[in-house]
From TrEMBL:
It comes from the Eukaryota. SUPFAM superfamilies: Lipase/lipooxygenase domain (PLAT/LH2 domain) (SSF49723), RUN domain-like (SSF140741). It holds the Pfam family PLAT. Residues 15-64 are annotated as: Disordered. Signal peptide: none annotated. Gene3D superfamilies: 1.20.58.900, PLAT/LH2 domain. It comes from Plutella xylostella (Diamondback moth). Residues 1-153, 324-487 form the RUN domain. This is DENN domain-containing protein 5B. InterPro entries: DEN5A/B (IPR047278), PLAT/LH2_dom (IPR001024), PLAT/LH2_dom_sf (IPR036392), Run_dom (IPR004012), Run_dom_sf (IPR037213). Residues 32-55 have a biased composition (Basic and acidic residues). Residues 157-264 form the PLAT domain.
Length: 490
């Protein structure tokens, strides 16, 4: 294909210009990072109270925008065997990076090359038509394309990881690791995080659009506790940058006791390959966050509608909109159901952070197991606490057994998940098994629910409980396929 031959011919001339520009950019970046006056000024603004914001994170060095940089990345793809294949990959990559018009303008500015390769009557030799052509290509920058990411799933790509711990507990003696999943169904193994550095690069087969990141440690050493703010991951070829907000502790005996957390990706909408934007302070999810019942109802309804719409989308649309984000994202179904279970939770007011929603779920399991023992022995024990008019009903006993089985499966994963992580895993598994809405009524009539929830809660008020059941029931029509990163192999 003539295009790739033209690119190869002009590459040497552009290479020197790209290296000079990259050198100047690196020098400015080093000077900025070595200027202590700028850092201290930002700190004084934060400490003075006049500007309440978190300090900006160290920026990822911008990727070069030179034509030859993309050419080298394409030529390094071992799964392409022909010149036409290289040219198509270059066009897809340039289109995805919103640099196609810029690259072609740079290429077509070489009049000597055009004269040597094209006749005088050729389309590219007409300056007016060429300018109109480049202008039309420029309008493609208004749309986000993933034509390179989705086309080459077997290509090995470099990924840069930038971890931003909180200043309150930025160091840990534990051995830390990350594992990343993407839309192609691939997931990395646990990648060790190098000690004394929070920025590193690893290579892996194309993960596609990133969806989740699991980060944790082995809780070793004298001071293993670690307060993590957020994680950035950038594809070093396409320039796509993802942020994984956390703002939670990792360590036993702190927060919910989790030593690993599942973080959901947010694709940063940046201009080309600009600097990583400043980190926005995030609010940790705690039981002290209360919303009105009507707000929670609207949130859950929007989540269910989004999941239903996702199942009717085309494969291409599904690849760019992960189901994991709809389930476990910041405004996903798990977070909304967490708010529903927090609403009217007496222990949140009486004991603060000492009790979690998972503690309530565990006590319900104990009550269900006592009820099953009652059925097996055909004896009535008031201590079991369940007050059903149809105790021998097959459906109720099946729900009790399923609930206890799922809870035991989640507990078998180990204590590393923590209580919030186990709650998330239980919701995802019960949704996959089509038991989620069926469990609500048996849970609502237990003695534990009466003890731990107020009458105006979702589990005790008939109208709110009916809403939860009816809004979740349509999800039974779909096969919920969860990523391995969500299920922990269960």
């Amino acid at each position: 294909m003539q295009l790739w031959l033209d690119l190869s011919s002009v590459g040497a001339e552009v290479e020197a210009q790209a290296q000079a520009q990259h050198s100047r950019s690196s020098s400015r970046s080093r000077n900025k990072s070595q200027d202590p006056s700028r850092e201290s000024s930002r700190d004084r603004l934060s400490n003075s109270g006049t500007l309440e914001r978190e300090p900006a994170p160290p920026p990822l060095r911008p990727l070069p925008e030179a034509l030859t940089f993309d050419m080298r990345n394409v030529q390094a793809m071992t799964d392409i065997k022909t010149e036409i294949g290289y040219a198509r990959a270059w066009v897809r990559l340039s289109l995805e990076k919103k640099l196609l018009s810029k690259h072609l303008r740079e290429l077509l500015a070489d009049t000597t090359l055009l004269r040597s390769q094209y006749k005088r009557t050729a389309f590219l030799r007409c300056e007016e038509e060429r300018e109109q052509f480049l202008y039309h290509l420029l309008t493609l920058n208004a749309v986000d394309y993933f034509c390179f990411t989705n086309t080459y799933p077997t290509t090995k790509l470099p990924y840069r990881v930038l971890i931003l711990p909180s200043r309150k507990a930025s160091q840990t003696t534990a051995n830390c690791w990350v594992a990343i999943s993407g839309a192609h169904g691939e997931a990395t193994p646990k990648i060790p995080i190098p000690r004394n550095t929070y920025e590193f690069v690893f290579h892996h087969k194309n993960l596609g659009i990133l969806s989740t990141l699991r980060i944790g440690h082995d809780n070793s050493g004298l001071s293993p506790r670690w307060l993590l703010d957020q994680v950035f991951v950038r594809n070093e070829v396409t320039g796509h940058t993802y942020i994984f907000p956390c703002n939670r502790w990792l360590g036993s005996g702190v927060d919910d006791g989790s030593t690993e957390r599942l973080l959901v990706a947010q694709l940063l909408r940046t201009h080309k390959s600009a600097k990583t934007p400043a980190a926005q302070p995030t609010t940790p999810q705690t039981a002290s966050t209360h919303l009105s019942t009507s707000t929670i109802q609207h949130m859950i309804g929007d989540c269910v509608n989004a999941i239903v719409k996702w199942h009717y989308q085309s494969k291409r649309e599904k690849d760019s909109n992960s189901l994991s984000v709809l389930l476990c994202g910041e405004n996903g179904l798990v977070k909304c159901l967490e708010q529903a279970f927090i609403c009217g939770f007496k222990s949140a007011r009486l004991f603060g952070k000492n009790l979690f929603i998972w503690d309530f779920f565990a006590r319900v399991r104990d009550e269900f197991k006592l009820s099953l023992c009652d059925d097996n022995s055909q004896q009535t024990k008031p201590s079991c606490g369940v007050n059903y008019n149809c105790r021998q009903d097959q459906e109720h006993r099946a729900i009790w057994r399923c609930y206890c089985h799922l809870m035991d499966e989640v507990d078998s994963v180990g204590a590393a998940l923590g209580k919030d992580g186990r709650f998330q895993l239980f919701i995802c598994l019960s949704l996959r098994e089509h038991w989620l809405h069926r469990m609500l009524v048996p849970m609502s009539v237990t003695r534990v629910t009466a003890e731990m929830y107020e009458e105006q809660s979702f589990l005790r008020k008939r109208g709110l409980l009916t809403f939860l059941r009816q809004i979740l029931e349509p999800l039974d029509e779909f096969d919920i396929v969860l990523e391995n990163s969500l299920t922990q192999g269960i």
